[in-house]
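Bench notes, afternoon.
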Amino acid sequence: MHHKFVIFPFTAIVGQRLMKKALLINAIDPTIGGILIKGDKGTGKSTVVRALADLLPKIRIVKDCPFNCHPENLRLMCKSCQDRYKEGCLPGIEKKMEVIDMPLSATEDMVVGTIDIKKAFKDGVKALEPGILAKANRNILYIDEVNLLDDHLVNILLDSAAMGVNTVEREGISLYHPSRFILVGTMNPEEGDLRPQILDRFGLCVEVHALSSKEDRLAIMDRRGEFDRDPWEFEEKFKEEQESLRRKIVNAQSILPQVSISLEMLEGIVEITTSLGIRTHRADIVMEKAAKALAALSERDQVVEEDVEEAALLALPHRMRQQPFERGATITKETIETILRTKNKEEIFEFDREREMKKGPLELNAMRGHSQGRDFPKIEGKGGLYVKARESEKPKSVAIDATLRKAVRETGKLEILPEHLMEKVRIRRGKALYIILLDSSSSMRMEKKIRFAKTLSWLLLKKSYEKKNMLALLAFRGEGAQVVVPPTSDIIRVEEELEKLPTGGKTPLTPALYKAFQMAEKETKVSPTIILVSDGKGNVFIKNSIEEDIKFISPYTNGANLVVVNTESKNRSIGVLEDVARTFAAPHFYLEDVM
């Protein structure tokens, strides 16, 4: 007959690699400052927390001490245990780590404890009535729905997690005890977010979602069913894996003090945080600690670049509230790799100064100003400032001054003919849409093209939280172009679709360009810029040839900007894209120069 209550094994949990990794490194080094887990209901958040407590090795505590003091380590003892230790050995017992739940109805006294003032003068720390932080010492403190807990209490918990000490002050009396715990907060973002100041205080953050693959979802159903039928047998099945991971944690804890990090890795950390515009120094410190713990978990005594990249994925998302991506705070491994390996990303968008000066405000802003977050884009429309005039057979708003000048210049008198009509061009500040038009017809340099598109996407959405920039992805191969991602500010979706792009077939260059201009025309409330990424070897036409197609397309640009990125090398380019760039007065780059 079984008497033991069985917890679902940590190693049996399917997927959620980052969440599990974040929990493990907090167990290795609790000074990392805890983990915030964001996710919908039913994504296994509380299951993994309970599983972690069951997985972790037992702890030795001082018998009868309410603070779970360590019987041999002075730094992990309360004042009373320190005094007793100096007089001789402390009685120690082993116990399993616990999950201490934080009730949402908790008061400050419940959390920090209370002091018996009269007793305090005589008995010191023994006069402290232990609170939740006393029970949590050397255990796991779990706050479900942390976003619903009073900010003041959350700050107290985070202070204790960072300092490893709980200080209680009443009537001029100050008592303290160790409070070194693994802090885990969970929340459903749909129920409201935490303030940025609170978010920054959590060491790490992961966002969990229901697994999307059929195989993973079937595995979850299968394992849960197996556990429910016979939890003891299921536990036995994973016993070896659990023991192996437990030994790995113990080993990591022992080697952590010896783990070193080079100046190059520290510079990499700072490069990442500054590139992402993160203002808090806590991010750098937490990344260093997390990278060391990750190295220790991998049984290494030296931090490598992979540790830094993974530390960034765990330590930075919640600190990017005003940074790259509108849905706050999602970054990818590719983003971090790009930062580490492309020191001067912005140079992708730098033109020759003289050439820049010849460009109109739309073209200039499309690539240079916007990429660096300097100005809002300028949108043509009925409202806004009249900045120039252009020829138009059917002007929406006649530029009288320019029309008169043209008539006088061409006829020598004030006789205005239809061909003299000039249209006012007005601009105003507005949102921007970037349409990446990617040639996927050839697998040649495809990896480089995708990497460029990812880097470009990240840079163009870098300030979308403030500016609400949008990005669309069109890919062309075979007989035409496909809208792979409609206008969005979700960088993750763009990156996922780039990874899945099929390749091969004919190259419908001009039909794709025509489709991109049509998409741009429909977006009346934004300033559209099309970024064509191709080798120019078009062999599917709207008419009969590239030349005829370009002539056909040119009247349909409707004020959209075009930027051409040539994926062919300079000495092998067939000249088509150079002609396209000239026709549409578009900046032209070679991919080899910018990647």
